[in-house]
Amino acid sequence: MRPNALEQLFVARRGGLVELRLVLVDPADGRTRATHLAPTGDEREAARWLGRHLARGGEIEDLRRLRVRTERGGQLVDAPVLARELVASYAATKGTSKP
After folding, report:
1. Which end of the chain, N or C, is less surrounded by CB atoms within 10 Å?
2. Predicted confidence band at 98 (pLDDT cuts at 50, 70, 90)?
3. What's the rounded Cα separation, in Å, for the pair 47 and 53?
């Protein structure tokens, strides 16, 4: 089964760029992990880039359970602003008001 939902996103800086670690969920609740290196060093732009990337890929259709966390001083901190950026970019690319 292919994943159709993005459940979690972990954002970290790696070598001047932003690493995005995704936890994807399929309809049977199986989890898959994927990692992308965004072509930017800005976390907000990286979230927008990922939103566009997921929308264009066509497989991910559900962002309702999305939780975004970023690394700060070795700790994971919730990042609702990045979640909103990702969802807005996804919706704009899909041409819908909600993902």
Report:
1. N
2. low
3. 10
